[in-house]
Amino acid sequence: MVVEDDENLRLAVTAELTRDGLLVDEAGSVSAAAAALATGGYDCVVFDRMLPDGDAMEHVRRRRRQGWTVPVLFLTARDTVADVVAGFAHGGDDYLVKPFAMAELLARVRLLAGRSAGARPALLRHADIELDGVRRQVRRAGVLLGLTHKEFAVLEYLMTRPGQAVSRTDLIEHCWDSSAEPMSNVVDVVVRRLRIKLGEPEVVRTVRGRGYRFAEAEPGR
């Protein structure tokens, strides 16, 4: 999540992170961020420090006292040693001073998000399919597949739940940002393209009335 009240900067940061394959939600205030954080699971939050309805550092400190563990990167124009120390003391995991290079922000977010996702295996294998979460690559029978960011995200989510029925709503919540339209057929389109690229035998199965599941090929299929 990117929490920044400067709309131009927020859109620029969101665009950069999205281009790198991350799913990004946006907020322009502490209250909007709090509402989103109450319902969504995030691997990292980028907080502008001074927001229209308060100091983000105080908000993060309160959440940390309640046991909140999501990594936080503070963005701010305040660059004194005391300001940086305060950022870490209030529960920040990283601190980046404006103006900053987008490449540096991306690298820092990737590092923090990786910490949050550390419990997930970096390499998933099922039969002849191998998904590398670090390099964001998928191979089948040793052949590298050219998947889009969404196709990769859907396959990764299904592969971490082998044999389980996963609803379209679950896929939208975990593989798309908040701008996705839940009633659209976007999931079906992505799954159809994913199946074509994965080839035979089929491993992404339709569960009638429930969604999809990932399963190793059955004998004879």
Could you describe the 3D structure shown?
With 221 residues, this protein is an alpha/beta fold. Helices cover 39% and strands 20% of the residues. The protein has 8 helices and 13 strands. The chain has helices at residues 7-19, 30-37, 56-65, 81-89, 102-116, 149-159, 168-175, 186-198, and strands spanning 2-3, 26-27, 45-48, 50-51, 54-55, 72-76, 94-97, 123-126, 129-132, 137-140, 143-145, 204-207, 211-214. Strands 2-1-3-6-7 form a 5-stranded parallel sheet, sandwiched between helices. Strand 9 (129-132) and strand 10 (137-140) form a beta hairpin. Helix 6 (149-159) packs across helix 8 (186-198). The longest helix is centred in the middle third of the chain and has 15 residues, at 102-116. The relative contact order is 0.10. The mean pLDDT is 85.
Write the layout of secondary structure elements.
Blueprint: E1 2-3, H1 7-19, E2 26-27, H2 30-37, E3 45-48, E4 50-51, E5 54-55, H3 56-65, E6 72-76, H4 81-89, E7 94-97, H5 102-116, E8 123-126, E9 129-132, E10 137-140, E11 143-145, H6 149-159, H7 168-175, H8 186-198, E12 204-207, E13 211-214
Parallel strand pairs: 1-2, 1-3, 3-6, 6-7
Antiparallel strand pairs: 4-5, 8-9, 9-10, 10-11, 12-13
Helix pairs in contact: 6-8
